[in-house]
Amino acid sequence: MRFTLKKEEKLKSKRLIGALFDKGKSLSKYPLRLVYLKVEHTSDYPIQVAFSAPKRRFKKAVDRNRIKRLLRESYRKNKHLLYEAVDEKYVIMFTYIDENELKYVEIEEKMIILLKKLLEKINS
């Protein structure tokens, strides 16, 4: 498996994002929150993903963009955990909920824990 995050894997549809927040289920491992929903989408990839950092907590766009970049990178390196175990199509949103920016290593640890939690929920 290639460790890339292509354009087709990114969640951009406003309709799907709206459905995700209306009907989706949530998991969290501080400082990350994951909202997921099993839904049919047009992408060839089984999972479409989006990342967010709230403007309320991070006033400067530079800070929000850095956090989203760290989230994307940690997901990109560990998405193989999901792809190996998932058959259906899902949309996922990661949100950073802490007010302070953590180091990349800490974010990646929490991301791995959260992905494993998601797999447990999906498979049960």
Automatic annotation (TrEMBL):
Q: What does the record give as the reaction this protein catalyses?
A: Endonucleolytic cleavage of RNA, removing 5'-extranucleotides from tRNA precursor
Protein EC? 3.1.26.5
* Sorted UniProt keywords: Endonuclease, Hydrolase, Nuclease, RNA-binding, tRNA processing
| GO BP of this protein | tRNA 5'-leader removal
Question: Which PROSITE patterns does this chain map to?
Answer: RIBONUCLEASE_P (PS00648)
Keyword Membrane applies: no
In terms of InterPro entries, this protein maps to: Ribosomal_Su5_D2-typ_SF, Ribsml_uS5_D2-typ_fold_subgr, RNase_P, RNase_P_CS
UniProt xrefs under SUPFAM superfamilies: Ribosomal protein S5 domain 2-like
What Pfam families does this protein's entry cite?
Answer: Ribonuclease_P
The portions of this protein that span the membrane are none
The Gene Ontology CC terms held by the record are: ribonuclease P complex
**Single annotated GO MF:** ribonuclease P activity
Q: What interactions and quaternary structure are annotated?
A: Consists of a catalytic RNA component (M1 or rnpB) and a protein subunit.
**What does this protein do, in the record's words?**
RNaseP catalyzes the removal of the 5'-leader sequence from pre-tRNA to produce the mature 5'-terminus. It can also cleave other RNA substrates such as 4.5S RNA. The protein component plays an auxiliary but essential role in vivo by binding to the 5'-leader sequence and broadening the substrate specificity of the ribozyme.
Similarity comment: family membership: Belongs to the RnpA family.
What is the protein name stated in its UniProt record?
A: Ribonuclease P protein component
Q: Which organism is it from?
A: Aureibaculum marinum
